[in-house]
Design brief:
Elements: H1 4-16, H2 27-32, H3 36-45, E1 48-51, E2 59-62, H4 65-72, E3 78-79, H5 106-114, H6 120-139, E4 147-148, H7 149-166, H8 174-184, H9 193-214, H10 222-228, H11 237-268, H12 270-278, H13 283-294, E5 299-304, E6 308-310, E7 313-315, E8 320-324, H14 325-328, H15 364-381, E9 386-387, E10 392-393, E11 402-404, E12 406-408
Parallel strand pairs: 2-8
Antiparallel strand pairs: 1-2, 3-5, 4-12, 5-8, 6-7, 9-12, 10-11
Helix pairs in contact: 1-3, 6-7, 6-15, 7-11, 8-11, 9-10, 9-11, 11-13, 11-15, 13-15
Length: 411
């Protein structure tokens, strides 16, 4: 959590502010990790909340666990078409369709094509290589010297896993991290719209070459599966790119930020770390608890296709609806003691970090498997890892991301 004085000031602001002026999308609060009292107040006083003015225009916020589930399971009313985040497409932006931003039936056939590669059987075939690569990364960490956990561990582990899933040239794997950041970060201060489009076209060209090489192939990697799947083999280039970026972001950000968030959680809760060391069977519940506690995807968006009443409010057709997973996962009416990190929760998968319904994250078991292997290997090696100061968080209300966190492993 944030420094106590900063957090106390945020709580005072959250409860002094007129209710109708609360804007949960303010990105600076995600940087300082002071979002919590604003969502707490909304859950208690105005769980379906309308923000008339924001950086992203007007939108509805759905902040409680059960209301989020209502929106997620009414895909006939709440559409994913057009946009899945609070950010609206801008004139001149490249259109890159992806199955997470589609409604049935097209969504269903494309998702079905990708699903086998993240099935239990497929994941088990990847597990030994993930464990081997994780062990190598951890064994090369400096002892007794400060280093950046995000860069050396969280990023490196996830890009190696992505390279494995895509059968991507291993020596070029860090392109995957750059492309993931490009797809999820506001780049307007870094490059012009034309430069951004050129970057995305370069990505498309790179992957199209890999695609062409794998047509007719039988290897069990994501590009080969897409290149030969009946529902995906003829998709247009921009749709192919959109789905690849979705899989890159989905395979990168959830795991990457939960690895860092997990270290923060265990450091802040040494009693919980002691429980896991004493009883390794608790990995089964600790990993989903890490994901709930971190909630790496802060929100997802839907677009109302018709008027719908929820929480005593009427959302009108055409309005933007934001499901704040980060708030639903702190809903004390559904999750007992939700602010606490508890490795032996009775129902650890009772969370909305992966969404729910037809758009529930197709790679959620992959994320859990990666995190389990990583933390098994970390706890084998290191009795203590010290966090040196507050982590640096990204300016985003979509992903709860870390850009840096300095740590030291005592000698």
């Amino acid at each position: 959590m944030a420094d106590d004085a900063i957090f106390d000031a945020a709580r005072a602001e959250a409860y002094a502010m007129p209710l109708d002026k609360i804007d949960p999308s303010v990105q600076d609060r995600f940087v300082t990790n002071t979002i919590w009292p604003f969502f707490e107040r909304l859950r208690h006083e105005d769980p379906v909340h309308y923000t008339a003015e924001s950086e992203f225009g007007p939108f509805w916020s759905v902040t409680t666990f059960n209301d989020i589930m209502t929106v997620e399971t009414n895909h006939h009313v709440f559409s994913s078409e057009g946009a899945i985040t609070i950010y609206d497409p801008q004139p001149g932006d490249m259109q890159m369709p992806m199955f997470i931003a589609m409604d049935p039936p097209k969504h269903d056939v494309q998702r079905k094509t990708v699903a086998p590669i993240v099935s239990h059987e497929s994941l088990m075939s990847f597990a030994p290589l993930i464990r081997e690569r994780a062990g190598k990364i951890l064994d090369e960490l400096p002892i007794g010297e400060p280093f950046d956990w995000v860069d050396r561990v969280s990023v490196e582990l996830t890009v190696q896993m992505l390279a494995t899933l895509f059968d991507f040239p291993f020596e070029e794997r860090h392109k995957l991290k750059y492309w993931s950041d490009l797809a999820t970060t506001d780049t307007s201060e870094m490059m012009t719209q034309e430069e951004g489009q050129a970057e995305f076209m370069a990505i498309a060209t790179y992957f199209k070459n890999l695609w062409d090489q794998r047509v007719g192939g039988t290897h069990n990697d994501l590009i080969t599966v897409l290149a030969n799947g009946e529902a995906t083999k003829d998709m247009p280039l921009m749709e192919f790119l959109g789905n690849l970026l979705l899989l890159i972001v989905g395979g990168n950000d959830t795991t990457r930020n939960s690895i860092t968030g997990g270290l923060i959680a265990l450091t802040q809760n040494p009693d919980q770390l002691a429980k896991v060391r004493a009883n390794p069977a608790l990995f089964d519940s600790m990993i989903p608890e890490m994901i709930r506690w971190q909630t790496p995807v802060a929100h997802m968006r839907r677009n109302a296709k018709e008027d719908f009443e929820i929480g005593g409010k009427t959302i009108k057709a055409g309005e933007k609806v934001i499901m704040w997973y980060v708030s639903g996962n702190r809903d004390e009416t559904v999750i007992d003691n939700p602010e606490a990190f508890i490795v032996d929760r009775e129902r650890p998968r009772q969370h909305v970090a992966f969404g729910f319904g037809i758009h529930r994250c197709v790679g959620m078991r992959l994320a859990e498997m990666q995190l389990r292997i990583v933390w098994e290997e970390i706890l084998k090696r290191f009795p203590t890892i010290e966090i040196l100061g507050e982590p640096v968080r990204a300016k985003s209300c979509f992903l709860r991301s870390y850009t840096s966190m300095m740590v030291r492993i005592p000698a």
